[in-house]
Amino acid sequence: MTDVSAGVEYKINVDGNSFLLDSKKYNLLVSILETGSLTAAAKEINVSYRTALNYIDKIESTLDVKVVSTTKGGKGGGGGTSLTEEGYSILKECKKINAIMELHKDVNEIEATIVDINDAKGVMTIKNDEFEINAPLNRNYKIGDEILALISYDNIFLMLEPQTSSIRNILKGQIVEMRLEGEIIRVKINVGGVTLCSDITVSAEKELSLNIGKEVYIGFKAMSVATLKL
User: pTM for this one?
Assistant: First the structure.
């Protein structure tokens, strides 16, 4: 079973109903899919059968959908529990979020609000308290939505002066920390009260003559910004 650590929560939306699926309930659904048995699934995640039933009831009553289907066996047994189409869809959405987070382990997180949508260019503008950045348009979002923007450390470029290029997002900041990590240098930059990280090579650090306290510009392409709706 692909176990998810405690503390992880997924916000699930089904036809206007929302539910925060925690790690226990997520792992229960995964185990039901793998074992075909609610009893075995409960045992695998170390909860009682009654608790597992309560988990399922809570999900189904809140979202107003059936997430599992139970069949009874005949004289020889053979009954079991499986995920419904809705239950599998919920699990698939959670796994997609897991995949995004795994891909972006070293990632900057920025909480922001969508303030503009440009359908023609396929971008949306999101605003933090101190700055605005561009991200790829997600047509499921609308102006006013609160989102989490994710930008990998290695997708952020450092510049001494702003440059005209294909980079749509250029922000001014100040270096607050530099640390050697293996063969790269992790640079932390304060940008309008938000600390963002950039991974650069040792040769790039020397070429730019970087040091703590130095003012720099950071840049990243709109397409390097992944988003999740909060």
Answer: 0.58
- How much is the pLDDT for 75? 43
Residues of the chain with CATH 1.10.10.10: 9-103
Comparing 15 with 194, the larger pLDDT belongs to 194
Amino acid identity, position 9: E
Per the CB < 8 A criterion, the answer to whether 217 and 173 are in contact is yes
Domain 9-103 has CATH 3.90.950.20: no
CATH 3.40.640.10 fits 107-229, yes or no: no
> According to the model, what pLDDT value does residue 13 have?
83
CB atoms within 10 A of CB 209: 8
**220 neighbors 171 (Cβ within 8 angstroms):** no
- Structural Rg of the chain based on CA atoms: 23
Q: Quick one: DSSP state of residue 74?
A: B
Identify the residue whose tokens are 């700055």: 131
Other Cβ atoms less than 10 A from the Cβ of 53: the count is 14
